Amino acid sequence: MKQMGLISRQIKSHKYKYCKKAHKIHDNVLGRNFSPTVPNQVWTGDVTYIRIKGGWCYLAIVMDLYARRIVGFSLSDSPNTNLTTSALKMAYHIRLKPKGVLFHSDQGSHYTSEAFSDFVESCDDMTHSMSRRGNCWDNAPTERFFRSFKTEWMPKHGYEDIDEAKQAVSAYIWDYYQSVRPHRFNNNLTPLAKERLYFNKTSYELSKKS
């Protein structure tokens, strides 16, 4: 690596504030079954930090595991319930309020709060699943997305401010990750291409039956 002028980039650890207030914990219903057979069957959510000048901002995403597509996201200067609820609301409305979604997250206070639980319960037959405490592998695909963003897109020293971070995240998700970047899980199709293939096949089968 030294001869070729290559430098290793390591993602630094980041500690979130600990909340002592009692929150609602859910069982790990997903159980690392990361390969749903249809869209809107399983969504996952998580929060990561993004460095900006003088501090941090926080990104919450919602991923549809079928094609690893990001269906909701939100940025804030605080990793709180408003952040995670905003990302899930975006996903729920963009996907036209699907019924029976299994939503999986970790046990962070921004997912176990009463306000977040209330929104999940307001969604049509949505079930909340949670990783075991301290086990990041229970939500591996979502963690992988954050790693890809930080190594492929985010500058080494982060962004100037939260507005610049928002523009960068939006560009990565809409202009690159969804429609340009091939994904090994999708047999090297992009998330949009895999979903399009599914819906085209479904429409064709329905037309044959009619």
From TrEMBL:
Sample GO molecular function, one term: nucleic acid binding
BP terms from Gene Ontology: DNA integration
Protein name from the UniProt record: Integrase core domain protein
Gene3D superfamilies attached to this UniProt entry: Ribonuclease H-like superfamily/Ribonuclease H
Pfam families (alphabetical): rve, rve_2
UniProt organism field: Psychrobacter piechaudii
Domain Integrase catalytic residues, every copy: 35-199
Matches recorded under InterPro entries: Integrase_cat-core (IPR001584), RNaseH-like_sf (IPR012337), RNaseH_sf (IPR036397), Transpos_IS3 (IPR048020), Transposase_IS3/IS150/IS904 (IPR050900)
Native organism taxonomy: Bacteria, Pseudomonadati, Pseudomonadota, Gammaproteobacteria, Moraxellales
